[in-house]
Amino acid sequence: METKIAIGIMAFCGIASFLGLFFWVGIVIYLKKKWMAQLEDTLDNGTRFYSSLGLFFAGQGVLQYATVFLWRFHAKRFGMLEKRDKVSKHIQRWFIFAFWEFMLSFALFVVAGILVQIYA
């Protein structure tokens, strides 16, 4: 009985992590097309590193800007402490949501992987 429950949890975590990461890629594409250039103008003085390159770098940019919006330490570390207040809260919420979506999906993926290792 315990193995059947573990298999169900593994399946749920695996499917949920896959769907979550797929959804996160969609959010990254949306943020790259609509808000990334404006954010780079405000926070990085117009340097188009994340929006001009591929999807992989856009994903990194979404995660970096979300950490800037979430934690004062990271904003100060990246030299964006004063600049982050110039970005509207609406845009900040999109980036923060994308960050937590990625973290939740990755955590579910790790849980599924650990359960596979335990019950394999």
UniProtKB/TrEMBL annotation:
Keywords: Membrane, Transmembrane, Transmembrane helix. It comes from the Bacteria. The chain crosses the membrane at residues 7-29, 49-73, 94-119. The keyword Transmembrane applies. This is DUF4149 domain-containing protein.
